[in-house]
Amino acid sequence: MSRTDGEKAQANLDGGDTRMRDLLHGVVLAAALSLGAPLPGQTDAMGQMPAAGATPDTAQLHRALAAALGEDFQIVHTELSSGLHERGGTFWLVHATPRRSGMFELRYRYDYRDLTLPADPLYTHVEHTSYIRVGERGCLRRRQAKDACLGDTVILPFVADPTGHTFALTFRESSGDWSGYGDAQVPPGTESVPNPLSAHLGFLGAHRHHMPSRAANGLGRTTFTAEFVARAPGRFNLSLSSIPSAAGSVPIVIVPRGQPVTVLLWREQITAFHATQRFSSHWGNEYGTTPLLLQPGDRITLEYWPPATGGALATLFDETDGGAGPRDADPPVITRFPFHVDPAAGFNALVAGHLPAGRVP
Question: Which of 12, 77, 115, 230 is the most buried (most CB within 10 A)?
Fold first, then answer.
């Protein structure tokens, strides 16, 4: 008797077309993790389900990591954290201080545990790679594109639920720009913009950017950006909305020049491997937080909707701008709110308790 088309399709699936299945699973996994969403029936940061009641061996992790860090980083504190807002599973958080400036590549790997298909796992192991740029003590982190300065503490998050962890750290010299802090004075013509934070955050100007699309009708996306320079220490929330709201404001902390701070590792590249099938998936992971840590001389650029638009999304599409480049725009409505950090936003829970103290007088 001949098989039906459905039976043939099922036989092909069951009989060994595993590469296509792995490709599809890899795409789904990468898409879900990039959005911060766990897969159905899976709870941790790699889509694996931790064993019931399993407790990571942090003593063993500590020894392995300390050996890899060597004399380049000093571990000052470690803790376990679970149930983060954007990721499930358990993280081992390592607070470490760099001992020399330069560029570091931190790589760690662990075994992939697939409880959905244990006999035929989607992957065999996973690697996380991150780059940490460390400047000299008192460096301008933002202007010099540095993640940390000597004296700072970096929070390194490691997925702790799986097993088989190994760590590696490599170093190379950096030809970083150790130039001056720049002028904290605002340019002429911007002093007239109402700015209740002028003593701490100088307004440098606003611009309108239009990005045409390929469509023949010339539609595109228009954005408005405002630039500021940090001038004096303080803590506050900044709103640029035409309808000011503390809920949509940005927490900002300005510390004195050279004051050490605690920062969270920003980004890592994740690669999941299947050793026997030579198959892998790649994606990036960001540990986003909302507080901005600045020091006098640092500059920031924030998006906003100008008052003339009333915050309307209609300005997303504009047929009148030919895309000739940035143009001056109407300034934003600058509003100050008391300092507040929402611990449920992004990975704020990991840094909320380590932000510098102090407030705007």
Answer: 230
Look at residue 158 and give its three-state secondary structure. Answer: strand
Contacts of 33 (CB under 8 A, 6+ apart): 45, 46, 47, 270, 283, 285
Instruction: List the structure tokens of 48.
Output: 């694996």
- Which residues in the chain land under pLDDT 70? 1-54, 83-88, 174-189, 213-220, 308-326, 358-361
Tell me whether residue 158 is exposed, middle or buried, using C-beta atoms within 10 angstroms of its C-beta: 0 to 12, 13 to 18, 19 or more: buried
8 A C-beta contact, residue 264 and residue 293: no
- Starting at the edge strand that comes first in sequence, how are the strands of the sheet with 327-328 ordered? 299-304, 220-230, 201-212, 327-328
182-196, pLDDT tens digit by residue?
Answer: 555 666 667 789 999
pTM of the predicted protein model: 0.76
List, for residues 82-102, the tens digit of each pLDDT value. 756 445 578 899 999 999 999
